Fold each of these.
Amino acid sequence: RLHKAKMGDYYKFNHNDMDSLRKNLERATKKVAETGGGILVITEGVFGMSGKVGSLDEIVKMKEDFNFRILVDDAHGFGTMGPNGRGVHEELNCIDGIDLYFSTFAKSMASIGAFIAASKEIVMFLKYNMRSQIYAKALPMPFVVGGMKRLELIKKHPELREKLWENVRAIQTGFKAKGFDVGETTSPVTPIFLQD
């Protein structure tokens, strides 16, 4: 909704296709040179329908050629991907290249709410300019305390994530052995594609 409000044009790049992204960045860069403004690339860490991991490291590398910011929706990666559960950007070793990192507490933390991690300047801008936040209520304290405890578990108990991955490998291998098509998932998201 923000992009149509008063934020200018938007271009779609083909799903996880870096050539398509590069072409659209070239178009957007020309537009910005004419009109001013900036470029924001929005993508996912783990694509929720396929389980494929987004090419965040390749997108970050494109910052060498283009001036843009990246917003990553990592609802399915936070808590499950990377050596410390920080998400796909940790898994692909490109944390410093991500400008806005968004995730939910509803997946790996089994709760409600969400968060965005960014520079203080960006967070304050969003806090005071997003209509949905102007009259929003804070999470109830039990959810905050529970969330902090779950975050501590993610950080201090990698064996829980290791067990998750053991279960993921078992179920994906089992489905494949029974003839199910789980696609090319490289995450805990396990789709089953039905054939005609």
Amino acid sequence: MFSAPIVVDCRGHLLGRLASVVAKELLSGQYVVLVRCEEINISGSFIRNKLLFMSYLRKKMNTNPAKGPYHFRSPARMVWRSIRAMMQHKIARCQAALERLKVFEGIPPPYDKKKRMVVPDALRVTRLRPGRRFTNLGRMCSEVGWKHWDTIKTLEAKRKVKSASFWAKKKEGIQLRRKAAKQAAGDAKVKKVQKILDSVENPAPVF
């Protein structure tokens, strides 16, 4: 079992490629959190993907539509369903794997303060030829029944302001630390105790 969940920023990823990589990681025992699912891309023009989804909405049980299939409109649930489709989701192993997955629109706390990863093999800029058309998942969902796109945009704008101020303070602290380390390197008093400090930080092995 891996030690900590991996937080993946889905912005600019292709849906199918990202889903296949995440499904593999979940089955191997990794906990995965997907944020900003509304910024995922799908290859192909917007109108093509929208028409495909509208045809999918017509698929239902004729006698009792309440029994399924269920058509999720939110981007996070669409991503979850794509990942589920890449597993044998009715067996116990895959059901346990899906429990290790969390999906979100935007970046809610506490994940806004955690390091976020990308999946290079699934990025649109590396996998889709320049000039090819692609669809933004959030825009498509907002036109087929998802009602929270404007809310997510507002929350993301506020989060980005906070994030920018946090990074400015952190960058200032890094610069001050480097400056202090540079000054200390030329100080005669520090040189006298440097060997002692090094031995405390990196003690010699006993055996």
Amino acid sequence: LSLQNNQLQGSIPEEIGLMTSLKTLSLAGNLLSGTIPNFSNLSQLAYLYLYKNQLRGQLTNSLFDLSKLEVLFLSSNLISGPIPDYITRVAGTLEGLYLSDNKLVGNIPSALCSLTELRALFLDTNDLTGELPACLDSLTHLRQLYVFNNELTGILPEGLQDLTSLRGLGIEGNTFVGEVSPSICKLRDDSLSDFW
């Protein structure tokens, strides 16, 4: 079901949760507001695109009860609160997590490191604090890691050098300290096409 790039307003109807055969739901690029309803009955849903709306509220556990979820694209909304540890529920399936340009706060949880199928992790342009989890090196399939324009601190984990599939790394607009590891520079020569 795709209704993206219209001017739809109001909240997302909870009745969508009754469409239990849905594999893709795209309501992106509208003027939808309110919170994200409970989609936990959508047991076949693999792709959820809700970016570029005016959705509020927090990341609820029901989003991560979707056992076949491969892509969760919620960028450019007004979603607040922390990234929940409950995200580990989609560890075996999730390949793309897009949470850019929201109002997320708190640390980047080490629970993200259990998402071993992840190819794309977009957390940029939020209000996230703390350090990058050292365990990110467990995301061996990761191709894009963008955390720019947050309030992150500390040193860059040495383990980033082990992400040999990485093609894009965006870390600008934070307050990282220390030296840039020569091994990360080598990674740029070997694979990275975007590094800022």
Amino acid sequence: MTTKYHSSYLTSGCWSPTRAGVFFVTRMDGVVDIWDYFYRQNEVAYSHKVCDPMLSSIAVQGTSQSGGKLVAMGDVTGTVSLLELCESLAVPQTNERKAIDLMFEREMKQEKNLEARERELRRQRALETDKSTREAQDKKDAKDEKMEALLRKVDADFLAMIKEAEDDESKAAESSSMDAGGQDLINEDK
């Protein structure tokens, strides 16, 4: 539950001691707003320009049993203004306390549900982030494993090529030494 936006800042506020759904708000522009949540939750019930200076405090006379008709407001210059309220803003209505309590209970439940939903969304986002991080790490690990396998294969192929080249060289050396040894025998026979 919030009040409507206004360009003038709120300076003070209080609840009515006799009406559970009525509260008062003073503003910097010298206006007092009276809200009656029992009848309207989205509009000010009554707005009154008290003075030009900024209102700085407010108090409502009375107890929960009686009173509630006189409202005192102080401004920053030290002036106190009294406002007498009509009966409808001062006298409790039938079942008002119960209705306002139920309204606040609904609002608190809604707030708790919204907070729980927000926590659930944050938890889901965290899980999705963790999952994508794990998937990215798994892809990186898979690429690393593929790269290692490729490097092992290239290394094995390289070593096989070297061994083959060495074998070819040794065979060539043996055959040339045999050829040279055979030539020596042929030359000796002559």
